[in-house]
Structures are given as structure tokens and as C-alpha cells.
Please model this.
Amino acid sequence: MGNAFGLSRTLICQCKILPRWATLSDLSLQALVLGSLGLCAGVLGGVIGFGTTIILMPALVYFYGPIQAIPVIALVATVANLSRIFLWWNVIQWRVCFVYSLAAIPFTILGVNMLVQLNERLIEITLGIFLIALIPIRRWMRNQNFYLKLWQMALVGAVIGYLTGIVATTGAINTPFFLAYGLTKGAFLGTEAASTLSILFTKGITFHQLGFLNVTAIIQGLLIGGCVLVGSIFSKKIVLALPEKKFLLLMELVMLISGLSILAMSF
Model:
């Protein structure tokens, strides 16, 4: 692990981690765009349990580049998940969280160390293809009517932890497994958020050790996360009122547009 960290730090020093826009007016516009997207993402993510980082990812990749964007996304996702945990605390299934997290943590570390050794353009292409591929994968899983046992959630945690370490966000593919365990609505939203939090904390610690999670990234992530938090507060009132099917179709459209946008930026 020590050799891996050393190699990663060498690679990081060769990467540009400053924002692509540097003037005051551009930074103001950047803050306005990301803040507005964060507010919308917080509402949508709070209702369907995922989508917060998917909405923000193209803009963050554009402003900061694919490598620096990932630790910022991890911080934003952490704030979003904390808000959902707070909103649905009473119905969270903590046994599922424990089993899932126990397997997810070591595989997240493995995924992050794989990520920092990849080429920036390759990361952008991977992110774009991954988001688009999630659309048919999610539909297939929903049609299979899976029912998972508690021990199987450990396997899910290992796979999702590794993928999240590499591709920044896996909330959309995470969803079918928690639904297959029998969780719905508030129980699903809270339990999935609490389980994923272990992955996000692990990513944050690992990125910090690798030199990615600097003060600038922390401030950026927390500011955008604050907008997400405001949006999440409004989500609880509409969870039961809005049809899930329409939101899933909308999310698929968001995933498609986001994936195509990131692919376009890679060329």
C-alpha cells in the first residue's frame, strides 16, 4: 500500500488540480451554476435516492477536470447522504448498513488507488460510458424481481465499493439491490444513504492520503453540498406525492444527457 501511495503522489503532482476558470467573474458564474444545479440535485436526489452527483458531474468535470472533480463529488454526496439519513432516521435498517459497509470499505480503497493511475481522458470516457450503460442495467435488474438476503448485501457492498472508487457515483446501480432486499420509500432512502456513507468517508480519507483532497476541494464540496442540503429538505414532502415511475424515466434522461456531455468533453 505504501508503494501505491508513493506512485499515486508522483502521478498527482503531474496533474492539474486547479479550476479551469480563474478570473473573478468566471468564478462567480461557476458558483452560480454549481449552486443552482446543487439545489435541483438535492430535491431530485432526496426523492428518488440517487441522481445528486449525476446531475452535478458534467459541470464539475468541465470546471475542474475529471480527477479533481471526483473528490469534490464525494464531498457533495456525503452531505446529500447525511441529509437523507437525518430525514429518515427512524426507518433505517442498520443491520443492512453494517453488512454492506463491512465489505465495501476495503474495496473502495482498492478502487480509488486504481483510479489515480488512469489517464484523465480515459477517466472521462469511462465516466460517460458508465452513466449511459446504467440505463439498460437498471431496467434489466428491475425486470428480474431480485430478492436478496442479508449476507448477499455484503457482496453488493464489495462490488459497489470498488466501482465507486473508480467512477465517482454508483447510486443508480445501487438502487435495485436495496429495493430487492425489500426496502421501499423512506426505509430505502435512509438505509441506502447510511450504507453509502461508509464508502464516501473511505474515499475522502483515501483521496486525502493521496493528496487530492486539499483545502480548496473541501471548501468547494461543502459549498455545493450546502445547496444540495437545502434542496433535500424540500424532498421529504414530495416523496409520497410524486409517482416513482416518472422520476425514474426522468433520471434515465438525466443519466443519458450527463454521459453524452462527459463523452463530448473528452474529445
Notes: The longest helix spans residues 185-210. The CA atoms of residues 183 and 249 lie 20 Å apart.
